[in-house]
Amino acid sequence: MNKKINMCWFLKVISLMLCLLVPLASLRAKVPEFGVEGRIRVKPVFFLVGDSSTEITEKDMVAFLRHLEIAQKHYKRLLKTDSFVLADAAVVKSNKTQEYFFTEKQFDSAHKIVSMLLAEFGYDRWDCPFVFVVVVNRQFKGGEDYFGGGRTFNGPPNSGGGIVLLEMDSLRKDFPYPFQSTLVHELGHAFGLVHPDALGYDLYNNDSIMSYNQKHRSNGFKQSASPGGLNPEEYLMLSYNKRVFPEFRLDKVQSNKQSLKKLIFLGPMNETIGPFKHFAGVGYELFYNGKKVNGPEAALYDYSTALANLKWNVRNRPGVEVTGRYNGKVMEFGH
Fold first, then answer.
1. Which residues contact 212 (CB under 8 A, 6 or more apart)?
2. pTM
């Protein structure tokens, strides 16, 4: 990616404040254990806003699907045993204007589009079986007015679907950003991956598809000679996303723990795409004198965040029996 092209606006502005730090040891016990209830598929969507004169053509649809198939093969080369699967393409029309969706607060734009797509297809943030890859017929005005990004709905691995947003101009002209390499990068965010600098790598020189390394830039349907790989932490994270990659298993090279630095997963989108809800026995549960008192968002906490919260409550609730559970198991200090 070009340094000036900040493709991950709602990721960098919001999720860096929400991202959950997960200790490497005993990772399975450190993240919420959501049930596996069917495969998450990547669903191509053309999103047409009401006041744009840009209409989709058969050529657009063919190009979109071809790009997705190339990206699918790229992930298969990286993971070897698995890749994402595609759902049928769709066209969604909105009567809302560009001004409604594309304000300066682009993080809000993503939430508005997600909310509309969930309503259109009859799902909520929890049961949606899709990562939506959305090409928007927004009329690009030039300059640095770029639109795009990717992230998960709910945060932790295996907790649900996600969203990728891209410009129609980039699909047609490979500008203001190269469509193919950007698609691969933003899909990574929708599968739960963060930028490599959050893991301690160089954002602009690391070989990961999640970096802004100029060597990864595609040209139309032609991938770069060096299209990008994955860091050990990224392989590990994808191995926990079983609803997207059910057949993927780490090999010795991918899971080289000596090179692991730290692991981060994205925080959830806010409640404008739908309310959080309580999950019995999932994630963090806080009890006062045996009564559950935590809010529903606590189900999405990592273990270290939950333990810090439990310690705070023990210190600051004199006379109250404070206990906590994580994934249904009693939490203990020093755990």
1. 1, 2, 3, 195, 203, 204
2. 0.87
